[in-house]
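Hello,

Our lab assistant flagged a job as stuck in the queue for most of the afternoon. It eventually completed. Since we weren't sure the result was trustworthy after the delay, we are filing this so someone can double-check. Below is the sequence as submitted and the structure that was eventually returned. Let us know if re-running is recommended.
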Amino acid sequence: MTEPAWRMRLRAVSIRLRRLWALLALAEAALIFWSSGRTWNDDLPRLALDWSNFLHFLLYGGLGGLIHLALFREAPPRPALVPLLGATAFGLFDECHQALVPGRDFSVFDLVTDFAGAAFAVVLIDRLLRGGQYRPTWFRILVASLALGLASSFLLPAILPDW
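-- returned structure --
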């Protein structure tokens, strides 16, 4: 039995969109890699809270979300673990890269924040793509990843500055 023409067109659009998400994920990864290779000016004015680490939450949330959108298929369902591990592995690679840049260092807090941001975005996007029905488990994961991102951005570096 042949597939209807509308379904073939829909599949072609879906493939093009997944390619677009993949290209955007690569562009964001390149932007993250470029910015981590720079030595930032410490003479810039500081805010009451240091938001620079929270940017990791946002950037790696975007990266994990874009990877998930690039890999998502209706059936069979793709596990959300793949984009989460991909974004976190890139975060580890990027932290190792930062360790080689003068004036920059490897930060466990950044890596934890990268993971939390990716987890938040991947779970949120996965739930939205699959119908968005409320389930306590994924809601707890969203809240926990947001809390972990905030703690690793603001609270833990203040308590353990040399770690």
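-- support follow-up --
The delay was a queue issue, not a problem with the job. The result is valid. The mean pLDDT is 78. The helical segments are 5-36, 52-71, 81-99, 108-129, 136-159.
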